[in-house]
Design brief:
globular; alpha/beta; 4-stranded mixed β-sheet
Length: 441
C-alpha cells in the first residue's frame, strides 16, 4: 500500500495518505491524484445533475399525459384492438380500462405531489390457454399507447442465491426495449409470461424446503410490483459490488402477469359446483366443443381464492387487483384469425409473394384444414403461421428464380397430405392478366 504526502491535482490540497481511501485516484510515478473530498464533490454534482434530468423527464411525460389520455380512452383502445384481435371481447375491455386508469393515476399523482391520498396501481393478471392471444393483445396495446413493452419469461427467474436470472431482469429488458432511456422505461409495460410456472408447487400447503423457482421469486417480485427503485447492471456485465448500476423507479410501470394456469378450471369448478354433476368436471363429457364451452364458462368466474389455491401467494394477488380472462379459440375463431385481422397470416404471405410478382390464393377448404390442424395440435393461434410456412417453404424457395407473373393456389390436400400448391403461369397482354396459359405441377 502506497503511503506518504501527495498533492491533489484538482483542488491542490496537501494530503497525508495512510490508506487507499485518502486519495482514491493516485499515480505515484506521475504524481497525479484526486483526493476523497474532490471525489465526494464530483459524486454529488453527478447525482444532482441526474436528479434534474429525471425531474425534467417527468415534466416532459406529464405534458404528454393529457394527449395520451385524450387519444386513448377505453372505447378507442378497444376499437384499435378489434383490428388485430379476434373475439376476446371481455379481455379487450378489461385491458383498455386498466391501461386508461393506469395513466389517469399518473396524472393524479403529478397534480397532487405531496398529497396524502394516493391511487393504487392497477397491475393485471391475465389467464388463458396457450395460443389464445395474450401476448398479441398486450403488444398491440403498447403499440397503441406508444410506450415501450417487454416480455420476460417468469419461469427463468430465480430467488437470489440460486442459479438463474434475478427478478430485476424484467426491468432491464424493458430498459433496452425503451432504447436505454430511463424516463421511457419508467412509464412502460412489463409482461411476465408463464407466471403460473412460479406458483408454489404444493399450493396452499407449501413445503419448507428450498424452492428456488417458485415462492422465493414471488416474494422477490413484491416490491417491484408495488413500486420501488430497481438497480441492475448493463447486459454483459457481471453483478458485483463495484459494477456500475442503472436505477429505474417502477412506481409508474404497468405490470401484467399471465399464463395458461392449466387446471385452474378444475379448482373453480370444485368451488362453485361441488357435487353438481351438471357442470364442472363431474359432468359427462359429450364432445370437445362442450369441453371448450365449459372451460370458457368457468374461467370467467375465477376469484383470488382460486389463484391462492393454485399456488400464488396472497401478497402477490393483492398487488394484482385486475383479473383478465381469455377464452379458448374454436375452429371458427381460428379461421377468422387467418384472414380478417390487419396482420392476418394469409395477408402476410400474400404481401410477401406479391413482391415476386405472384398472386397467392387459399381455397376455403384449405383454410378450414389449417384451423383444424391447429386445433389438433392444441396450440391455438400461435401454430397457424407455422402450418402455412411448412406448406409454402418449397414454393417460396422456387418462385424467386423467375420474374414471370404467376398464381399459387393452396388446396386442402396441401395442408392434409403435404402435396405441392398449384403454380399457374399467367400470360400478359397489354398490361393485363389473361387466361391461365400453363399449370405447373
Amino acid at each position: 500500500m502506497i503511503q506518504g504526502t501527495f498533492h491533489c491535482s484538482v483542488c491542490g490540497r496537501r494530503v497525508q495518505v495512510q490508506n487507499q481511501f485518502d486519495m482514491p485516484i493516485l499515480d505515484p510515478n506521475s504524481g497525479f491524484g484526486v483526493c476523497k473530498h474532490c471525489i465526494k464533490e464530483l459524486n454529488r454534482f453527478v447525482e444532482d445533475n441526474e436528479n434534474k434530468v429525471m425531474r425534467r423527464g417527468k415534466k416532459t411525460f406529464a405534458n404528454k399525459l393529457d394527449e395520451l389520455l385524450e387519444n386513448n380512452k377505453p372505447h378507442i383502445i378497444k376499437e384499435y384492438l378489434d383490428e388485430f384481435i379476434i373475439q376476446q371481447e371481455r379481455a379487450k375491455k378489461i385491458l383498455s380500462v386498466a391501461a386508461y386508469n393506469h395513466y389517469k393515476r399518473m396524472k393524479y399523482d403529478l397534480e397532487n405531489i405531496g398529497g396524502d391520498e394516493e391511487i393504487d396501481k392497477s397491475n393485471v393478471i391475465i389467464l388463458g390457454p396457450t395460443g389464445c392471444g395474450k401476448t398479441a393483445l398486450l403488444s398491440h396495446l403498447a403499440k397503441r399507447l406508444g410506450i415501450p413493452f417487454a416480455v420476460t419469461d417468469a419461469s427463468s427467474l430465480t430467488e437470489a442465491g440460486f442459479v438463474g436470472s434475478d427478478v430485476e431482469v424484467a426491468v432491464r429488458n424493458l430498459y433496452y426495449a425503451a432504447g436505454q432511456n430511463v424516463e421511457q422505461t419508467e412509464h412502460g409495460i412489463i409482461y411476465l409470461d408463464e407466471f403460473d410456472k412460479i406458483a408454489r408447487k404444493s399450493g396452499e400447503n407449501n413445503s419448507i424446503t428450498a424452492d428456488p423457482g417458485h415462492e422465493g421469486v414471488q416474494q422477490g417480485l413484491l416490491k417491484m410490483l408495488e413500486g420501488s427503485v430497481v438497480e441492475f447492471v448493463a447486459r454483459g456485465q457481471r453483478k458485483h459490488p463495484e459494477a456500475p448500476t442503472i436505477k429505474v423507479d417502477t412506481k409508474n410501470i404497468l405490470f401484467i402477469v399471465g399464463g395458461a394456469f392449466v387446471g385452474i378450471d378444475k379448482i373453480i369448478a370444485q368451488r362453485i359446483k361441488k357435487g353438481d354433476s351438471n357442470i364442472g368436471f363431474g359432468a359427462e363429457v359429450v364432445s370437445e366443443k362442450d369441453d371448450n364451452e365449459r372451460f370458457n364458462e368457468l374461467i370467467h368466474q375465477v376469484r383470488p381464492e382460486d389463484l391462492m389455491k393454485y399456488g400464488i401467494i396472497p401478497e402477490i394477488i393483492g398487488r394484482l387487483p385486475v383479473i383478465c380472462t381469455l377464452e379458448t379459440l374454436d375452429e371458427h375463431a381460428l379461421l377468422r384469425i387467418l384472414t380478417e385481422p390487419k396482420n392476418a397470416p394469409v395477408k402476410q404471405y400474400q404481401k410477401l409473394l406479391a413482391m415476386d410478382n405472384v398472386d397467392l390464393e387459399f381455397e376455403e377448404e384449405a383454410l378450414l384444414a389449417v384451423a383444424a390442424k391447429a386445433i389438433e395440435r392444441k396450440t391455438g393461434a400461435r401454430s397457424l403461421k407455422g402450418i402455412i410456412e411448412d406448406v409454402m417453404l418449397d414454393v417460396m424457395f422456387e418462385l424467386p428464380k423467375s420474374d414471370a407473373p404467376r398464381k399459387v393456389i393452396v388446396t386442402k390436400e396441401c395442408i392434409e397430405e403435404g402435396t405441392e400448391p398449384k403454380i399457374i403461369e399467367l400470360e400478359i397482354s397489354e398490361g393485363k392478366d389473361l387466361d391461365f396459359e400453363k399449370q405447373v405441377v
